[in-house]
Design a protein that fits this description.
By secondary structure, this protein is of the alpha+beta class. The chain has eight helices and four strands. The longest helix has 24 residues, at about 35-60. The two termini are about 15 Å apart.
């Protein structure tokens, strides 16, 4: 794992995180016409997160085409404007953060495109296309957002029921991968095995934590 790129906010490389939750809660919050009191409370948390993101960007001297708070307002109203940039992506992330588990830190990467090299290595050992990292790390949000312009941040999603298949597939080939790829494959296998077990437990409790969310920034 390489981390030799210093970004404008002082972070080396690009941070990758994941969390788990029910994406339907997020979509209902963003698309419902008449929100329940519980949804209004959740929206207040999301707005607060957007305001904190805007404040952090101002402190860091980072300028977006519009504020994250305004982007959230436009998403809720169903009328996102023509502004390019990452504001809508950050607004969607704040909506997810308010509903999903605390994020798991997956590390820092100087070249996110490295994961496509991992794709090639895994595919060479028979991993199907829908289980390759590139298929879920960069798949985008489950709704259409205005084009972010620059490549990052990136959103990816993986249906939680797919976690078991991914873990089994990566476990089977991890020891045969090239040395540059083994640690990452093993880490994903371990995380997805845990998520698969959590999914089974959640179903027994009547919970529907159906989505694993990836945030690359």
């Amino acid at each position: 794992m390489d981390a030799d790129v210093r970004r404008r906010d002082g972070t080396l490389g690009y941070c990758l995180e994941m969390s788990t939750g029910d994406m339907r809660d997020v979509m209902r919050l963003l698309t419902t016409v008449e929100r329940t009191p519980e949804q209004e409370r959740a929206l207040g948390i999301v707005r607060e997160g957007c305001a904190k993101t805007d404040a952090r960007f101002r402190e860091q001297g980072i300028g977006l085409d519009l504020s994250v708070e305004q982007a959230l307002h436009e998403l809720i109203e169903g009328v996102p404007g023509g502004a390019r940039g990452a504001a809508y992506t950050y607004a969607f992330h704040e909506a997810v953060a308010a509903h999903f588990s605390d994020p798991t830190d997956l590390g820092v990467w100087s070249r996110p495109s490295w994961f496509f090299a991992l794709d090639d290595e895994l595919a060479r050992h028979g991993i199907p296309a829908d289980l390759l990292p590139g298929s879920f790390l960069f798949s985008g949000p489950p709704l259409r957002l205005p084009h972010p312009g620059d490549a990052f941040p990136q959103i990816g999603v993986l249906p939680t029921p797919r976690a078991a298949a991914l873990a089994t597939a990566y476990e089977a080939v991890a020891d045969r991968l090239g040395p540059d790829y083994r640690a990452t494959a093993r880490k994903f296998a371990e995380l997805m095995r845990f998520e698969a077990e959590e999914w089974e437990s959640a179903q027994q409790l009547g919970q529907t934590l159906d989505t694993i969310f990836f945030w690359f920034r």
